[in-house]
Amino acid sequence: MADWRQKMSDISKTKGDSAPESAKRAGMGCLIGVIVIVSILTLVMAVGLTTSGHWLIGGFTLLFFAACAVTFLALIWPHKPKPL
Q1: pTM given for the model
Q2: Per-residue model confidence (pLDDT) at position 52
Q3: Would you say 49 and 34 are in contact if contact means Cβ atoms under 8 Å apart?
């Protein structure tokens, strides 16, 4: 348990450029997960609004869903990780 606490304190004391690669991947995984959840909920809202006749707000919600989807695709696009 003390080893885990030491690892967490080491990670929290580092700057962004020197963070371990596993911590960077975990952070990106959490961010992608949140974006996926928001995208799904936004799509459900957009479909519900457009089917109930609220075309204007449904259109804006659909545009927000498109922005979330593009952000998701940009984050999962393979990129070269910066070596430490």
Answers
A1: 0.65
A2: 92
A3: no
Can you say whether the dihedral through the CA atoms of 54, 32, 78, 19 is positive or negative? positive
Asked if 39 and 69 count as a contact pair (C-beta separation under 8 A), the reply is: yes
Of the candidates 60, 83, 67, 21, the one whose C-alpha atom is nearest the C-alpha of residue 11 is 21
Neighbour tally for 43: CB within 10 Å: 17
Q: How far apart are CA 67 and CA 65, in angstroms?
A: 5
The span from the CA of 63 to the CA of 31, in Å, is 20
Query: Could you give the count of Cα atoms lying within 13 Å of 3 in the half-sphere of its Cβ?
Result: 0
Binned average pLDDT, 10 residues per bin, the chain of 84 residues: 70 66 80 91 92 91 92 80 62
